[in-house]
């Protein structure tokens, strides 16, 4: 007998380092966080799915057999309908349901509420269909499915960073992801007397509407000129001969990949001074080479520095969103800052 009620949780994510590298075949080091989206799916009569976004006070009802087409809807509705459509297309035998979505993630703050929603929704709907919780291998497939929702249904040409982090997260570890192979390697994140916090810049960002898609197009143009599939394969000297702004975009990707390797090495030996310096260097590169900062983000970086952060950088797609800071011993976080630490990936909380 399939269950009549499934509760699942999709976590938000923080990326320690490795920004705008995922769609460039590079390296990143994200982790899932405790906060996220909780999805409660209850079997319902009829042939419809109703999704209630509790925090927004909004609701959407659609036929399970016809969730609509890409581009028909925007925002969270596009995620919900797209997830149902992609699960069905992948062969899931979904059931009509009454779904409630609740989130304790700051919306639009760059902690990937979207991947949290898609991952939580997948697990809840698959659970209600009587399927077992996905194992490690299936999680890569689900990440791709969630990414199709974002690319095709929401119109944001994002990579796989958020979905892999939300689905594969582990407590106490960051995930070193190689986007060339999609290999995920857990890396212990031991910070001794330091803490990681995120501070919302207050400038909400959306991928579909920000400079994100433009950066992606620039990277593609740089690849075409260099004759490579991804910027991570580019020869640094050849990349340095590209016209502006492509030269700086490529330089960001190549130097950011190196910083991910250096961060993993620093964490392995507990060199947190270097870890902080790498966060600063990543931010400078995102600001100066990738042109992905905005004044509100710079102010958030300064606020964290003033509070005693030994390193701070924008996280996620940029053009707004949250800033991550590594606080030194005794530093007092700014009032609105949120402590973050690696937590479990998406999971089923209960079924009955
Ligand atoms: C967003 C996207 C990710 C990734 C980051 C930048 O979070 O969803 O795929 O590209 O920006 O690193």
Q: Would you identify the CATH architecture of the largest domain? A: 2-Layer Sandwich
- Strand fraction equals 15-25%
Unreliable runs: none
Order of helices and strands: EEEEEHEHHHEEEHHHHHEEEE
Cα distance, first to last residue?
10 Å
Rg value: 20 Å
Small ligands present: alpha-D-galactopyranose
Globally, the shape reads globular
Total number of domains = 2
CATH topology annotation of the largest domain:
Ribosomal Protein S5, domain 2
Count of helix runs:
9
Name of the CATH class of the largest domain = Alpha Beta
DSSP E strands, number: 13
Structural class: alpha+beta
Helix content: 25-40%
List the topology elements.
Layout (H helix, E strand, L loop, with lengths): L4 E11 L11 E2 L1 E14 L4 E6 L4 E6 L11 H15 L7 E7 L9 H16 L7 H19 L6 H8 L4 E6 L4 E6 L6 E6 L11 H15 L9 H5 L5 H23 L3 H17 L6 H12 L2 E6 L7 E6 L10 E3 L6 E5 L1
Parallel strand pairs: 4-6
Antiparallel strand pairs: 1-3, 1-13, 2-7, 3-6, 4-5, 7-8, 9-11, 9-12, 10-11
């Amino acid at each position: 007998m399939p269950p009549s009620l499934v509760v699942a949780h999709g976590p938000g994510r923080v990326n320690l380092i490795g920004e705008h590298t995922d769609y460039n075949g590079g390296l990143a080091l994200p982790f899932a966080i405790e906060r996220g989206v909780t999805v409660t799916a209850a079997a319902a009569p009829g042939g419809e799915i109703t999704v209630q976004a509790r925090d927004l006070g909004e609701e959407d009802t659609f036929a399970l057999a016809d969730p609509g087409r890409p581009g028909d809807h925007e925002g969270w509705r596009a995620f919900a309908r797209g997830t149902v459509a992609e699960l069905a297309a992948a062969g899931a035998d979904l059931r009509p349901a009454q779904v409630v979505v609740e989130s304790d993630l700051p919306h639009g703050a760059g902690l990937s509420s979207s991947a949290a929603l898609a991952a939580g929704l997948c697990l809840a709907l698959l659970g209600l269909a009587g399927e077992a919780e996905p194992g490690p291998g299936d999680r890569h497939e689900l990440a791709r499915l969630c990414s199709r929702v974002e690319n095709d249904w929401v119109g944001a040409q994002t990579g796989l960073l958020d979905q892999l982090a939300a689905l594969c997260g582990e407590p106490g570890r960051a995930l070193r992801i190689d986007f060339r192979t999609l290999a995920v390697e857990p890396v212990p994140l031991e910070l001794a007397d330091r803490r990681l916090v995120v501070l919302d810049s207050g400038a909400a960002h959306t991928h579909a509407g920000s400079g994100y898609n433009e950066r992606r197009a620039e990277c593609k143009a740089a690849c075409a000129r260099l004759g490579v599939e991804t910027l991570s394969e580019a020869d640094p000297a050849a990349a340095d001969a590209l016209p502006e702004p492509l030269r700086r975009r490529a330089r960001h990707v190549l130097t950011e990949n190196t910083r991910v390797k250096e961060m993993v090495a620093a964490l392995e030996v507990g060199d947190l001074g270097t870890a902080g310096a790498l966060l600063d260097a990543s931010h400078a590169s995102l600001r100066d080479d990738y042109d992905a900062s905005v004044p509100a983000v710079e102010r958030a970086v300064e606020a964290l520095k003033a509070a005693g952060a030994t390193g701070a950088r924008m996280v996620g797609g940029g053009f707004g969103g949250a800033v991550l800071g590594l606080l030194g011993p005794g530093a007092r976080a700014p009032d609105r800052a949120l402590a973050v630490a690696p937590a479990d990936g998406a999971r089923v909380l209960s079924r009955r």
